[in-house]
Specification:
- By secondary structure, this protein is α/β, with parallel strands linked by helices.
- The chain is 33% helix and 25% strand.
- The protein has 7 helices and 11 strands.
- Strands 7-8-9-4-10-11 form a 6-stranded mixed sheet, sandwiched between helices. Strands 1, 2, 3, 5 and 6 form a 5-stranded antiparallel sheet that branches.
- It is globular, with a radius of gyration of 18 Å.
- The protein starts with 5 loop residues before the first strand and ends in a 14-residue tail after the last strand.
- 41% of the residues are buried.
- It binds adenosine-5'-triphosphate (ATP) and magnesium ion (MG).
- Adenosine-5'-triphosphate binds next to strand 1, strand 2 and helix 1.
Length: 237
């Protein structure tokens, strides 16, 4: 059998809170194929954001490992890990994480700064991506002067502008109305058809059914057993 593109092995991320230990991710074995559109659903606090941060190389596991193309992320040095984040991975954060003192354009350009794109090219690509997301007339606005939905779209533009191989999207439509949700769903489906691998966390089951090829459910840090035939993948435990 071929090695999966991404494979987690007994992945755990525990947090210590005083005397208490929170098992945010607790022994997850999950594989992700190149080109797939995977949905992650589950109750609030079930570990969805935590596992996304681990997969994106933004956080380190307490134990267990993540192999990317057969190489454990834990074996990469700082420079290699930075390159993984800057070139291969796009991340849409649940809380946007936009920089308040930068404009919409500046926020999107920054993603290319860490990715060694020349300055002029950065501005062009950032403006083009924002226009694609319907923000062509908001380039000079700062996040504080944008609506929640507009900030969300800036965060999406920032993740997409560097043309990542894999997009981790944490509630990418959480702040959007029906029409904008539909547009983002179409955009992500389109990008996936063009080869982008997408891992999307969402509370919106309709959206997940519409976009994804496979859904997994997290339950107290573990992969839950499938509840209906649309769910599958990973080890239920
Ligand atoms: N830095 C932290 N310190 C301590 N506990 C944390 C920390 N980050 C997350 N947790 C805990 O880990 C668990 C999983 O959190 P996580 O953010 O992954 O949940 P989630 O599934 O994304 O929830 P939501 O749907 O509300 O976004 C929660 O119980 C949370 O309180
Ligand atoms: Mg979350």
């Amino acid at each position: 059998m071929d090695t999966p593109w991404i494979q987690t092995h007994d992945l755990c991320r525990y947090y210590r809170r005083g005397p208490q230990q929170v098992r945010a991710v607790d022994g997850v074995n999950l594989s992700i194929d190149r080109g797939e559109f995977l949905g992650i659903v589950g109750a609030s606090g079930s570990g969805k954001s935590t596992i996304l941060n681990l997969l994106a190389g933004l956080d380190s596991p307490t134990s267990g490992s993540i192999d990317f193309e057969g190489v454990p992320l834990g074996s990469l040095n700082r420079r290699q890990l930075a390159a993984y984040r800057a070139h291969r991975v796009g991340m849409i954060f649940q809380s946007f994480n936009l920089l308040g003192h930068h404009t919409a354009l500046g926020n999107v350009e920054l993603a290319l700064y860490f990715n060694d794109t020349p300055h002029r090219e950065r501005t062009r690509l950032a403006a083009e991506t924002l226009k694609r997301l319907g923000l062509g007339d908001r380039l000079d606005h700062r996040p504080g002067d944008l609506s929640g939905g507009e900030q969300q779209r800036v965060a999406i533009a920032r993740a997409l502008v560097k043309r990542p191989e894999i997009l981790f999207a944490d509630e990418p439509t959480g702040n959007l109305d029906h029409e904008n949700t539909r547009q983002i769903a179409e955009l992500l489906t389109d990008l996936n058809r063009q080869g982008l691998t997408v891992v999307m966390v969402t509370h919106d089951l309709d959206l997940a059914r519409q976009c994804t090829q496979r859904m997994i459910r997290m339950h107290y840090g573990r992969l839950a057993a499938p509840k209906d035939p649309a769910f599958g993948g990973g080890t239920a435990s």
